[in-house]
Recover the amino acids of this structure.
């Protein structure tokens, strides 16, 4: 009988894409996927270390994996991804039931690992980070869908003082333009209509002399693609060339993720973010000048060490001034290896919680404000999935990355259809599908 694997993924889209790579290696090794971890021959968890809470979730899932191992000692338990470094130490101390620990640059060795496991039956740990590994020749095993994730670069050299990513993912390196183009073409051949280019620092992509805007142009020329998105860019690398390319190609979505993190120059400096509040606001203005109607989203951290009330107010002020379309908001979480973890002026949990609530409230107001501006407009929506609320409604996104709910009528998943926006509630918009003739009139 064919052997089976079960895999569960935590963290960012890079991890989703990495799990797809791992699946393609497992399939080559003769395994097939199962959704039932209690029946699988090998069970994997792909982990995230970005905040303490992410790690706690993984530890709690590992408790369940441990139970499965007790019931069936022959099952192979594998831990992958960004927590590999931390788990390595813990494994040596108290998690002997884990058979395999592989860091993000070691997935290629999965095939040897399987042969080594059957031969030696000991634990296999490989958490070395590589300066070169980009898995260029390994195409991921994707399920059917609308969007294909394509990793274009790996690692991060920015070393923001709060962030563990440079330690879990290692140094920046990029794939060749040709292999990325080829992967995008294959995704289209397999029925995908949208690609999202991925990297921890996606716009610092550089392969030989080609930069991110060159790559975007190349991917924009892949025929059959309806949409191109990318995450996560860093404000420092948002260049005029990039904005010109985005403006020139309608297939590149009119949305940009611009992580602010904090609004006070003192805190930005302590975070090593490399831009000032003034630079950030000017950049947001420039983006809007190049790309009318663009959607701008952000990430914000509250309670970074040393953040005084006045610093925090500046974050709220920048939010008020830029009026982001949406925001991911986080309480600062001290991370091992990072500089900020060693700062002595950590902020109490209650203060972080209060500040988090305030940024959420401001953002909720701004999201509604920005969404209301859309009422009455006709937007092209890519039909992506069933709406959670009603079986006879679709959910799809505008190219500015806003979710719109509308009656299905005769639209199908993967269609790009005109929808008139009728209402803005919470974070999503509600609309009415138009006949193509209505749009032409
Ligand atoms: N490379 C991306 C960020 C990836 S991590 C960028 O620079 O934008 C995603 C988000 O998690 C970050 O933008 C930050 O807001 C948040 N984050 C990272 N480390 C964190 C920490 N220690 N505590 C709280 N939030 C953190
Ligand atoms: Fe982390 Fe900063 Fe790199 Fe983003 S740019 S992954 S926040 S170190
Ligand atoms: Fe988490 Fe690693 Fe992504 S730490 S956010 S899975 S790069």
């Amino acid at each position: 009988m064919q052997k089976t694997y079960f895999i569960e993924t935590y963290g960012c889209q890079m991890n989703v894409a990495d799990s797809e790579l791992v699946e393609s290696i497992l399939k080559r090794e003769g395994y097939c996927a199962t959704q039932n971890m209690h029946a699988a021959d090998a069970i994997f968890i792909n982990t995230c270390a970005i905040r303490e809470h992410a790690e706690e979730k993984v530890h709690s899932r590992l408790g369940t994996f441990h139970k499965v191992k007790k019931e069936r000692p022959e099952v192979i338990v594998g831990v992958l991804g960004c927590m590999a470094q931390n788990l390595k130490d813990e494994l040596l101390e108290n998690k002997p039931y884990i058979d395999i620990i592989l860091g993000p640059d070691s997935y290629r060795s999965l095939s040897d690992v399987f042969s080594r496991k059957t031969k030696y039956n000991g634990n296999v740990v490989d958490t070395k980070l590589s300066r070169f590994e980009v898995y260029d020749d390994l195409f991921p095993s994707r399920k059917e869908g609308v969007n294909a994730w394509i990793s274009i670069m790996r690692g991060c050299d920015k070393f923001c003082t709060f962030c563990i990513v440079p330690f879990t993912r290692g140094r920046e390196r990029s794939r060749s333009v040709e292999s990325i183009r080829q992967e995008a073409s294959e995704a289209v051949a397999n029925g995908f209509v949208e690609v999202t280019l991925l990297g921890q620092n996606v716009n610092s992509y550089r392969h030989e002399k080609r930069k991110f805007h060159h790559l975007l142009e190349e991917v924009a020329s892949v025929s059959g693609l309806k949409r191109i998105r990318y995450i996560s860019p860093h404000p420092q690398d948002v260049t005029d060339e990039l904005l010109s390319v985005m403006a020139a190609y309608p297939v590149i979505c009119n949305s940009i993720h611009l992580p602010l993190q904090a609004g006070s120059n003192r805190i930005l400096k302590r975070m090593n973010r490399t831009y000032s509040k003034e630079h950030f606001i000017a950049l947001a203005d420039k983006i809007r000048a190049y790309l009318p109607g663009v959607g701008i989203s952000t990430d914000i951290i509250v309670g970074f060490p040393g953040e005084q009330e006045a610093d925090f107010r500046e974050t709220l002020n920048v939010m008020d001034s830029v009026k982001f379309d949406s925001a991911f908001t986080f309480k600062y979480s001290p991370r091992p290896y990072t500089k900020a973890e060693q700062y002595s002026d950590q902020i109490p949990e209650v203060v972080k919680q209060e500040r988090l609530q305030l940024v959420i409230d401001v953002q909720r107001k701004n999201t509604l404000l920005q969404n209301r501006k859309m009422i009455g407009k006709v937007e092209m929506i890519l039909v992506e999935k069933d709406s959670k609320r009603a079986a006879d409604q679709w959910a799809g996104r505008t190219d500015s990355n806003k979710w719109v709910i509308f009656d299905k009528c005769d639209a199908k998943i993967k269609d790009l259809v005109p929808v008139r926006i009728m209402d803005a509630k919470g974070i999503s918009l509600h609309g009415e599908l138009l006949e193509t003739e209505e749009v032409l009139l």
